[in-house]
Amino acid sequence: MKTKPIYVEIPIQVPIQRVWDASQEPDLHAQWDLRFSSISYLPKNEEEPQFFTYTRKAGPFLTVEGWGKSSGSQQLKNGSRSSALHFGTDQKVSPIREGRGYWKYEPIENGTRFLTQYDYTANFGEIGRFFDLFFRSLMGYATALSFDVLKRWLEKGEAPASQYRRFFTTQLLTVFFAFLWVYQGVMPKLVAMHPQEKSMIASSLSLSDAQATYAVIAVGIAEVLVGLFWLIYKKKRHLFVVQIVFFPLLTIAALIASPETAIQPFNPVTFNLSLMMLTGIGLLMSKDIPTAASCKRKK
C-alpha cells in the first residue's frame, strides 16, 4: 500500500527570519518540535551540507537516536526560503528507517507561511508498514501540534515548555475523567449493581425496588456516555466548567439521600472534593491550549 507524505502548513504573523531561526537553530528547534528531544549540529566546512544528530525519548528506558543532513538551502527573489532534509536512524527499535523532506518559508501579508512535507520508509517489513498506518497519523498530528506551538511562541511569547505542560495536563485529565465516568457507570451500577446505589436512588426518589433497579441502570448508562463524551468532545474547557458546577450538586444530593455516608471512609465529600480540585486544575490549564487543528494538512 502506497503511503502519502506528511504535509503541514501554518501562517505565522512574524517575519521569515524569525521563523527561520526558530526552525534552523538546533537549540531553538528542539524546544518546540515534539518529534525531537535534542538536536546537535556537527562541525562542517562552509560548502558542505549541515550534518546533525538527534534524539527522541520514547519513554523512561528508550531513547531513539538518529542522523540527518540539511542541504539545498536557498532564498528566492520574492523572499521565500527553503531547506531540504535527509534523515534516518540505524536503531532497530525505531519505526522509521530513513526519510526525506523539506521546509519552506513563504512571505505573506504581515507574516510567513511555514510549511513542511516529508516521507519515510518504515522498519520491520510488512509488519512495520501495517503499524505505520497508525504511526504516520501520529507523526502528522505531532508535526501539526508542534507547528501551532511554534506559532504561539513567536506570536504571543509563551514558551513551548509551558504550552506542552498545559496541553498534556489537559489530555491526562481528559483520560482520567473519561475512565472515571465509565468505571463508575459500569462497575457499581451495570455489572455489580451495588445495594447502596439502589438504596440511595430509591430513598431520594421514593421508588420501589424494581423501579430503583431500572433507575440505577439508566444512571449507569448515562455515566458511561458522559465518559465517552469526554473522549470525543473537542472543547474540553466546556466539560471542566460543567463539572465544576455539577460535583458540588452531586455531593449535596448524595448527603441528602444518605447522610450517614459522610462519616464513612472514602465518602462522597472527600471523593467529590478531590474531583472538584482536579476539575479546577483542568479548567485553569485548558485555557487556549495548542491544537493541531490550526494547521492545514493537505496541499
Automatic annotation (TrEMBL):
Keyword Transmembrane helix: yes
UniProt-listed InterPro entries: DoxX-like, START-like_dom_sf
Pfam families with a match to the protein in the record: DoxX_3
Database matches in Gene3D superfamilies: 3.30.530.20
Keywords of this entry: Membrane, Transmembrane, Transmembrane helix
Transmembrane intervals: 172-192, 212-232, 239-257, 269-289
Protein name: DoxX-like family protein
